[in-house]
């Protein structure tokens, strides 16, 4: 029997939760840079009854992402695409974050925008970090949205030395994710498909825990404490949002970002000052 294909790129904490939510009854193509992470995720989801194919990918390599998209298309109708691969400031350098978090998303949106089936949908995991500073200057936003992926890292404001630290690189990359999704929506729409991003708050995955244990941990705990929910998020909180955006009830939603942060940004924006 022909089955639709769900692709999950990045199968760490959030990726596995999303795969579990959207994989049932479909062929599940899992992809990650880490063979170890990929093997563990594939074994776990297979043992739960999913039909899993595992493929190593480097999202910062155009050839690797293109090959993954072709692999997905060869498996059947690509109806679900979730991009969760990423590196955080405690894990990586400025250069690696720009390559993986910024260019990697741009490459995946282009490659999967070329194979997604009519009626299909994609979701990219950005971050509330992209909402922290608000909008960037309009010419920067336009460049981040529209520059071809191969030229992105040559933009003057992303040149070596121009981005002060990994935190700043992450903020720009995550803002860029939402902008790339806006820009990709028409191309995906021309195929009868939709694409959106999710901006999670602090989520208890290995990445989230590493950040909470790093130099920004105290500030992050303070933000959580003053938020409306007062709690850290779970991978399932993100999987629920992804399932909605990938599903039929979101048929009029495309080219937008859903903030799933437990109210952190709302609290930051509206906290009385002074
Ligand atoms: N955890 C949080 O608090 C949080 C908050 C906001 C946004 N995010 C974002 O959510 C996404 C998912 O994060 P997570 O919490 O599940 O983290 P995670 O570390 O559990 O998973 C991320 C996965 O991406 C993979 N990856 C890294 N570089 C790659 C590459 N070049 N090619 C392919 N795969 C690669 C890693 O091997 C890992 O398995 C990331 O984009 C992250 O920036 C996380």
Q: Which key phrases capture this entry?
A:
274 residues, 11 helices, alpha/beta, Rossmann fold, single chain, binds nicotinamide-adenine-dinucleotide
Strand order of the largest sheet: 3-2-1-4-5-6-7
CATH-level-2 architecture: 3-Layer(aba) Sandwich
In helices, the fraction of residues equals 40-55%
Count of DSSP helices?
Answer: 11
Separation, N- and C-terminal Cα atoms: 64 Å
Radius of gyration: 18 Å
The global form is globular
Task: Explain what you see.
This protein is α/β, with parallel strands linked by helices. The chain starts with a strand and ends with a helix. It is built from eleven helices and seven strands. It has helices at residues 13-23, 35-47, 62-75, 94-113, 129-132, 138-146, 166-190, 206-212, 217-226, 235-246, 264-270, and strands at residues 5-9, 27-32, 51-56, 78-83, 116-125, 194-200, 257-260. The chain has a single domain (5-202, 234-259), classed as Rossmann fold (3-Layer(aba) Sandwich). The relative contact order is 0.15. A seven-stranded parallel β-sheet has the order 3-2-1-4-5-6-7, sandwiched between helices. It binds nicotinamide-adenine-dinucleotide. The site of nicotinamide-adenine-dinucleotide has 31 residues, from helix 1, helix 4 and helix 8.
